[in-house]
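Milestone M4 deliverable, item 7.
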Amino acid sequence: MRRKRMKNILLGLFGILLLVQTSFANEWINDVEIVKVGTYQHSTLHFVWLSTGNLSECQTANPSNPVLSFDEAQLGGKSLMSVIISALMAKRKVDVQVNGCDIVEIYLR
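Output delivered:
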């Protein structure tokens, strides 16, 4: 009984460790330009290509097509779209925070 309880506690702690580790897995790509933005017809999902940047997290998450994306219909999606289009039109550098291949935050420099 005591051994089973200890096993459950250790498994619980291991699970918490995995959750904490993945919640801080966001990667920053700094001082890059947005080169191209694309989408499919009748879709709110947009794809973003950057001038440079090490997209190791995106490469790991989607090795066959490591392209950043965001969904305009999600919370904050329209704000992301306006900042991305502004940066693209003005050729401004940006700092981008990604989680896998999903854009989380973007800042104009």
